[in-house]
Design the sequence.
């Protein structure tokens, strides 16, 4: 027997191809794999694109008009005309408080009885009561009330109905770079891609590999001539392919459904996504090969990969504002680097200093995790 | 009747033993909600309290330094660069070194003294527009406060109308007060639904479900034997999360525990009902887990946990009506933060009761039909 290096390589390729074929068939035949590969990304796309919005709309509030004067009604009208609010006008504060207690309204704007008289003197007040449980909405009600009141105050002043001698004031002129329309989809959709890749890569791989350990079919593979890294390769390639399908779905939706701009280059975006996908798959392999139980590895995968990708990646919550300990933990979350890459590639463009730094960290994570996963698989043979 | 109870009790004991005999599973079920509550309590804040910024002050006057002092003194803004040219702004923002850049024009003080409007230009990194909005809001309030000082220093009157704001139930508008009690419901939904979805699927995969069926147990008893342990674990987890909220985060509890637990048990019944229903459809553990996940995802996202229900499209607002988590989060908020009594909770209680009744009946029907 002549053992050429080339024929060895061909045999190796054949073995890996056979494994991939087996795994792919398994993926295609199991309806639940299709569910996670196609249905879940689609569902997440639609939910994130349409359902989730931090932009507040239609907040139910009550405006208490104790003063029937023209100025008071003008303030009430500015709330009624705004698309942020669904306004009910009441005559007494008791009635409005009743509505707030029963959670029918989230805030009360009270224009007191002496409003017109005091605004002529220049010291009128408008009271705003907000339900603080939803702090975000409460702040928007508060800010809007202030703006509406300031506007009507300026108008009153201009018409000479209230006393306010002209004085210099600093005004803020703001520009929102990269997202001038201030659309929360611009950061939710790139974040969504991180979630989909994490789910398919880590969750799916860890479930499948844990099942093989549980059923003993993984050990059965070891007695065949297939080697450990070939097994790992055979296991991961189908899920990387599945992850690519999810990724393409998300990219298509981002571009055509939600009009999120892709300002960086698409090949770089795809390459980096592959890199992050390998990191996720490696995490899934590591977890399942160490735990060898479907229930445990699914739960651990959720807690260790998916939840941090949602909460600690900077995708929704600003990492600069969290306590130091949490910031330090977030440096261990690979999703953090990928979120930074995606937000930059989607909204800013090819900023090389950001790309190289984050890509290098992800590549390092991939190598470390794959080595650990390989060790976890081999060790359990003994 | 007594024999009936004894049989169910035996099943419950078996189930609890099966879950708790494995130390790793036990630790995970008990520790996971506490750890997640701690982590998310700290991490999940839409409040912005650290804004690195750069400034291009072309005026270098007393007025411009008074304005910048307002920003620096707020505790939120950290000046990391004093720029000299406008083109220095872009690289700092592109590389995320600063969140906002402020530019003050050369005639800032002159315009103010002349009684004109003096613009302060602010550029914010919109990659996360939510964070940027919050930061811009803080800039505006710092500028407002600067204006008030300027007026009083120069003997000008204050604006004619003042807004006085007060927040009920959570005076400082902290995201944490909203989020941590909501997590009590969310975390227990996740694990009870998974646990009940997997318990039957596991027995089916291992073949022990058929063994159970040939025993004298009736399908309803087998189901009760699966449902009650999952609910017990859910109650323990909810208690763990409540303890974190009160003892660690010191969020004051305004309501009564019996009321809260009545609501939680109804919620757990609905969660377990959904889990068992999923379990009755799935053939393997993997399928059960994936179906459970596909259910948990929209329930969590459409519950009002992360984003307000009132800003969702109308169709999805209808969908939230069949989401038990929506009612559970509302219920926990009302009892925990507002101190609501059981009579005020009726709008949350009856939908959960209906969801529980429908899913449990459905699961029971599926089980007994699969047997034949």
Sequence:
């Amino acid at each position: 027997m002549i053992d050429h290096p080339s024929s060895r390589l061909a045999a190796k390729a054949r073995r890996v191809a056979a494994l991939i074929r087996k795994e792919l068939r398994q993926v295609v035949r199991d309806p639940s794999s299709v569910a996670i590969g196609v249905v879940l990304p689609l569902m997440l796309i639609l939910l994130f694109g349409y359902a989730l919005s931090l932009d507040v709309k239609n907040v139910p509030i009550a405006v208490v008009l104790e003063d029937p004067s023209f100025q008071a009604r003008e303030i009430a009208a500015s709330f009624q005309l705004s698309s942020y609010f669904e306004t009910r006008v009441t005559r007494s504060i008791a009635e409005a408080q009743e509505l707030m207690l029963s959670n029918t309204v989230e805030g009360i704007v009270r224009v007191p009885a002496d409003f017109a008289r005091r605004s002529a003197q220049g010291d009128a007040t408008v009271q705003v009561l907000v339900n603080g449980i939803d702090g975000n909405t409460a702040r928007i009600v508060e800010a809007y009330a202030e703006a509406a009141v300031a506007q009507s105050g300026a108008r009153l002043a201009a018409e000479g109905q209230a006393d306010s001698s002209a004085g210099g004031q600093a005004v803020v002129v703001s520009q929102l770079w990269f997202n001038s329309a201030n659309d929360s989809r611009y950061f939710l959709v790139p974040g969504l891609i991180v979630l989909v890749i994490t789910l398919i890569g880590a969750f799916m791989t860890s479930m499948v590999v844990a099942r093989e350990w549980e059923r003993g079919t993984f050990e059965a593979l070891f007695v065949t001539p297939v080697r450990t890294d070939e097994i790992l390769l055979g296991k991961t390639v189908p899920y990387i392919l599945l992850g690519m399908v999810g990724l393409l779905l998300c990219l298509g939706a981002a571009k055509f459904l939600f009009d999120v701009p892709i300002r960086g280059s698409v090949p770089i975006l795809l390459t980096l996504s592959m890199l992050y996908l390998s990191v996720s798959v490696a995490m899934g392999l590591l977890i399942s090969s160490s735990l060898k139980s479907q229930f445990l590895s699914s739960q651990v995968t959720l807690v260790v990969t998916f939840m941090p990708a949602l909460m600690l990646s900077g995708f929704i919550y600003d990492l600069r504002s969290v306590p130091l300990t949490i910031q330090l933990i977030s440096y261990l979350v690979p999703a953090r680097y990928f979120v930074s890459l995606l937000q930059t590639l989607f909204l800013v463009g090819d900023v090389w200093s950001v790309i190289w730094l984050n890509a290098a960290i992800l590549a390092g994570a991939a190598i470390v995790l794959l080595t650990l996963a390989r060790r976890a698989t081999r060790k359990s043979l003994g | 009747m007594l024999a009936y109870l004894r049989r169910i009790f035996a099943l419950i004991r078996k189930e609890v033993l099966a879950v708790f005999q494995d130390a790793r599973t036990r630790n995970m079920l008990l520790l996971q909600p506490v750890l997640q509550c701690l982590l998310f309590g700290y991490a999940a804040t839409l409040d912005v309290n650290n804004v690195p910024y750069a400034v291009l002050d072309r005026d270098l006057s007393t007025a411009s330094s008074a304005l910048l002092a307002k920003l620096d003194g707020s505790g939120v803004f950290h000046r990391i660069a004093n720029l000299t040219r406008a083109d220095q702004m872009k690289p700092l923002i592109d590389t995320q070194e600063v969140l906002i850049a402020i530019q003050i024009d050369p005639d800032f003080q002159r315009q103010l003294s002349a009684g004109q409007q003096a613009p302060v230009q602010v550029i914010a990194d919109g990659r996360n527009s939510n964070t940027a909005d919050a930061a811009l809001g803080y800039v505006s309030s710092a500028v407002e406060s600067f204006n008030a000082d300027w007026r009083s220093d120069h003997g000008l009157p204050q604006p004619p109308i003042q807004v006085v704001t007060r927040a009920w139930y959570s005076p400082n508008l902290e995201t944490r007060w909203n989020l941590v009690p909501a997590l009590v419901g969310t975390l227990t939904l996740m694990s009870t639904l998974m646990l009940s979805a997997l318990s039957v699927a596991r027995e089916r995969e291992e073949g022990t479900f058929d063994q159970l069926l040939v025993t004298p147990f009736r399908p309803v008893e087998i189901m009760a034997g699966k449902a009650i342990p999952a609910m017990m674990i859910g109650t323990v987890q909810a208690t763990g999360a409540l303890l974190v909220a009160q003892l660690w985060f010191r969020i004051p509890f305004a309501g009564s525990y019996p009321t809260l637990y009545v609501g939680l048990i109804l919620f757990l019944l609905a969660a377990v009902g959904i889990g068992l229903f999923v379990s009755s459809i799935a053939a393997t553990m993997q399928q059960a887990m994936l179906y459970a996940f596909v259910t948990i995802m929209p329930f969590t996202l459409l519950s009002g946990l992360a984003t307000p229900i009132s800003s969702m499209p109308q169709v999805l607002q209808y969908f939230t009506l069949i989401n038990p988590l929506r009612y559970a989060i509302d219920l926990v908020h009302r009892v925990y933060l507002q101190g609501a009594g059981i009579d005020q909770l009726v709008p949350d209680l009856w939908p959960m009761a209906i969801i529980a009744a429908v899913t449990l009946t459905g699961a029971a029907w599926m089980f007994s039909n699969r047997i034949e």
Remarks:
- The beta strands of chain B are 51-57, 77-82, 100-104, 117-125, 161-168.
- Chain B has 14 helices and five strands.
